[in-house]
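notes to self, project folder thing:

trying the whole complex as one job this time. last attempt i did each chain seperately and stitching them together was a nightmare. two parts in total, labels are on each line so i dont mix them up again. if this works i'll redo the older ones the same way
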Amino acid sequence: MKISFLIHNAYGIGGTITTTFNLAGALAERHDVEIVSVLRHREHPNLTPHPGVRLRALVDLRREKDHPLHSRPAKVFPSAEYRHHQYSELTDQRIAECLEATDADVVIGTRPGLNVHLALQAPRRVIRVGQEHLTLDNHSPALRTALRRAYRRLDVLTTVTEADAACYRRKMRLPGVRVEALPNSVPDPVLPAADGTAKVVIAAGRLVPVKRYDLIIEAFARVVAEYPDWQLRIYGKGEEQDRLRARIETLGLWNNVFLMGAATPMEAEWVKGSIGAAASNFEPFGMTIVEAMRCGLPVVSTDCPYGPGEIIKDGEDGRLVPVGDDRAFGAALLDLVRDDERRRRMGRAALDNARRFAPGPVVAQAERLLQEAIEARDGGQRPTSAPGGTHHTLRTQGYAARDLAHAAAAGALRTVRKGRR
Amino acid sequence: MSPERAAQLRADCSVDTDGRITFRLPPPSAAHPRLLLVLRPKKGRPEETTHTLDLEPFGDDGEVRAVLEPRLQLAEGRWDAYLLRGPDAGRERLRPGLRDLRALVDGGPGDRPSPVAVRVPYATKDGFLAMRTWLRAAHAEAGPLDVTGATMTVRARLHGAGLSEGAVVTLRLRGDTGTVRTFPAQPSGGRAFSCAVACEELAVEAAGTRFWDAFVRPAADAPLIRIGRLLDDVADRKGVFVYPQVTAGGSAIRPYFTVDNDLAVEVTALG
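result (full assembly):
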């Protein structure tokens, strides 16, 4: 397959970028893969893409920031999308050109606005896969309305949790669109796992209010009161930095709680700890939880919608505590700090249980999804001789019809695909 | 060498509990590759100090490794890392891969002999692999720093020197070595001590900001030993270990770590 990812900005930092690089890299082992970054603002991406993945950008802000079209608001990219202000007529135009010219079998959008581009502008020969790294319930009604209209034209919509997939199926009428949870994958760690002896708790992510680092700090004060030789390291940067710093000072925790700044990759930092911490009020997935577990750390997390509860088995490979409860969070941390044997046992369980998020199983699922989407589409084409005219109608007829057609078309499939290459 | 290719040159490294550093590179397509470490000179000065390590094949996948033994003493400073593919090849600057520094996190052995040598691989701000080194005849490792009212109490432990009766902590005004303040150091077992500093005595009258550098004189006639925090995995501590500000004697006073991870106190007269 030739697979093309469409991403907002591959040169920044964040969960979507990391997981897209991971998935693209793993798919590149067997497929022809490129990442198309709508925006670019620096020479090198923070993460090094897999050598088999081509990376290109559509708008280079270093040269084109003042392009006249870039000052005019985007019309295709929906105005209700979070990043609409970073899009423009220039991005509208470049994305449209890119999609029109693509020779990929599959194009994968990685955020709502780009999924809309894909749904509206990708040629019909292309399988259109929208990825939602956020969640339906957290989208504004205006964005939901825009998506409801556009997403019908996708072939596949993936969410990162089962809970969110259920929301899309229940709340959006997307006939003929296959909605499936595809969790983020985390590469196999290179370094030996943490051995559970370090007196260090680690949290990582953007320093933004929803992540509730303030609650982790508050909870950690309880740990320090009993175990003054333990430290909490918070990796990341963001708008909350000064407030968190002030909180550390007010609580007198400057000898134990450290704002470490951003670290990429995090792997070498996770293995310095023996417990991971995540206290978000809301977490579409919880990439850092999986990263920490894959490095052998049990993670104490809030049981917020949607990700943590689908990642952590409470009491077995980590702890789930109520959202916003610093007492419960502190108690859960203390349980693990106090009990070396329990901490190590849960760390080993975390290592084992998090293997389901390894690229292997996740990529196998992604490949199956893409392959089945191609087969379903090609199957749908078979009964009519009209080239593509009735294609879209057929595509929206639901999975039962598609699967039937697929079965009938199995023989003709290979020929059809060969023809398209 | 295209920028793209240069960007791919990443070296992993790991430090073991003895302080041995192992650098690992993917197959460099060279018969006798070497790792070049160059001590960054002062601004405007030429490079003078370098150290070269052989990169030996290791394992089946062509990876090459170089080992920096702990007994090797490197001058204090910042060392940039390069790959040399051959005797006449130009040097290629390396980017950091995974730096496994977990063995450094707990501060290492309790008593280090003289000289105290410390090496911490790190990533430079512009994204290259470098190594921070310290080499000192003796060192006082700062521990927790408490601030109560207008008193700050620093706890520290000597390495490479013993602690005697009459030990004092000396704060020396930067740029004016004649101006010092001394405070008694209280032994707290072995080579550890603590010292309470009355912030009022550090206040300044002149407008602007002044800095006091912190030392310990472990015995009456002994030379001053710098107090700093060098013995863990944090190469650049200044923005990470941040202490509260105290107001005393009409000045705002804040202890901090310098860019060299040495302890100092920043004092600004309040207008």
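what i see at first glance: The longest helix of chain B spans residues 3-7.
need to look closer tmrw
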